[in-house]
Amino acid sequence: MEIRKKSDLYYASDEEIEAFFKGTVLRGQYSELPPKHEDKRFCGKIEHITINGMANDLCPNSLYVPVKFCHFVKPGLCEFYAIPNINALKEERRQYPGSSISRGDFPSMSLTELSSSSRIS
What we know:
Blueprint: H1 6-11, H2 14-22, E1 26-32, E2 42-51, E3 62-66, E4 76-84, H3 86-95, E5 109-116
Antiparallel strand pairs: 1-2, 1-4, 2-3, 4-5
């Protein structure tokens, strides 16, 4: 099954979802969180996320970057891999049967690898 939009994820097998995200590089704009930010689990946030240069409903509006990735990324453009939480996706499907979920932050998405990428134009 080809995955092109978020609703395709609801009908894809777990293996298809994992394969899609394993081979997909996401790009976005990383910025550090202010020192006063209360949640110390995160060091920054990635916004304006695209897949293959295009924003669609597979791209979350933003992702918080866990502290363990702080040393791998600098403010500016970055690229990263992310994997969805399959169980959370299935739960979203149950909450919104027969309808499309509007684009927003994905509670079901987490980073797996992150790097600064000054070569992205």
